[in-house]
Amino acid sequence: MTTTFLVTRIFSDEKGESHFEDIEISLKQAGDIGSLSEAIPAKSIIFREVLPSYDYDFHNAPQRQYIILLDGEIEIETSLGEKRIFGAGKILLVEDTTGKGHRTRNIKSEPRRSIFITI
User: Which terminus in the chain has less CB density within 10 A, N or C?
Assistant: First the structure.
């Protein structure tokens, strides 16, 4: 049985506008240990916690990275004004290292933790 893992990609187009794209990572049955994806090379892992008041204006990702949200909720806005809310357990692939960037703010008034995996 083949299943997928949903990841939301944030990227910049040739005009520098940021966009969302939903991508699926294929998983293949690996017996008793469950379903696994192919290995994706990574450079480092960073653990982060932000204050409840976190509201970061438009910015670019410092590098290509996956962000795994451990708790809380965030709203991300693209340069074209599209907004999406992401909660605990969601995974983002942030690739808008150039262009107009995206805006991120906490939805819940509590500290939020996440993990960055740089690629």
Answer: N
Dihedral angle over CA of 96, 102, 107, 113, nearest 10: 30
Q: DSSP per residue over 69-115, as a string? A: E-SSEEEEEETTS-EEEEETT-EEEE---SSS-EEEEESSSS-EEEE
For residues 12, 18, 24, 25, the Cα torsion angle rounded to the nearest 10 degrees is: 50
Residue 24 has pLDDT above 90, yes or no: yes
pTM: 0.93
Contact 117, 66 (CB under 8 A): yes
In the chain, the domains with their CATH numbers are 2-118 (2.60.120.10)
What span, in angstroms and rounded, lies between the C-alpha atoms of 72 and 48?
Answer: 13
Which two tokens mark 66? 């996956």
Length of the chain equals: 119
